[in-house]
Design a protein that fits this description.
CATH architecture of the domain at 2-67: Orthogonal Bundle
Radius of gyration: 23 Å
Helix content: 55-70%
Strand content: 5-15%
Shape: elongated
């Protein structure tokens, strides 16, 4: 499972499936992933009891198992933590960059022409 969950696209896909049923093609389009590769991922998740695959005619309806709901919830929490950390880092780096630019501007203004 870790092979697919560590890919942000598939982590987001798993999170988005919480409490829903969807068809494979619909999921592939919504998350901009190849339907054939998605089937491989879903087969692996099905083997690991993360999803249910209910077949109706030629279509499969995919939903999360209790284990899948738990994994989805934990992934959502982790992604929030990472997102908040990234925002803090961007703000911190932005502040540093503006201070560097300000100091560089002040030093340039202090140089007198010959």
């Amino acid at each position: 499972m870790e092979r697919f969950v560590y890919n942000p696209k598939y982590a987001k896909l798993l999170i988005s499936m919480s409490g829903q049923k969807a068809q494979i093609d619909e999921l592939a389009k919504r998350h901009n992933v190849n339907a054939g590769h998605l089937r491989i991922v879903l087969d692996q998740w099905h083997k690991e009891n993360v999803i249910n695959k209910d077949r109706t005619g030629r279509e499969y309806h995919i939903s999360l198992t209790d284990k899948g709901e738990e994994v989805s919830k934990k992934l959502a929490e982790l992604m929030d933590i990472v997102h908040n950390y990234e925002i803090k880092e961007v703000k911190k780096n932005s502040k540093k960059n503006s201070e560097v630019k300000k100091n560089a501007t002040n030093e340039t203004n202090e140089i007198s022409p010959l």
